[in-house]
User: Fold this.
Amino acid sequence: MDKFKQFLKSISSITDTEYNETISYFSKQNLLKGDFFVKQDKVCRHIGFILKGTLRTYYMNDKGEETTSCFCTENNLTTSYKSFILQQPSNIILQAIEETQLLVIDYENLQKLYAKSTVWQTIGRAVAEREYIVMEQYASILNNETAKEKYLRLLKEQPSVLLKANIEDIASYLGVTRRTLSRIRQEISK
Assistant:
């Protein structure tokens, strides 16, 4: 819980009293490796703060192949934002790639927090702004970086993912084949 409190304090001036008054709206959820936090075509009812573990965000392309779009790591929020906000079926999947512990809040309770607390309105706005920036950066990376540059970025920004995710998921995230990823790894190790 201290990690979550620190996260909130990094984006808002939430007091200990305000935190203590609102933490009861959250509950812990444990996922085993392979468990789903969000399923495709199901309405996403929760947003989660990752206390421990890693989730992979992916979607199925037109050929029925999995395409990884994100690895969600500790001390970050995660959900299918479009599905959560609109309360419509999700077109993405979030799956634990290792044992994962989340602190979750459902849509209705988050709306209650927004209604009763200006601090939570500020937190909601700050989280939305951060997510927008992340998505814009991801789009820029996707369009402007080579697979090797993307791999080096992943190595720098989320090195633990390279130890936890399987090679197919990393290759999918980079938009390359497994063979190309092996070649990139060999080039970097020289």
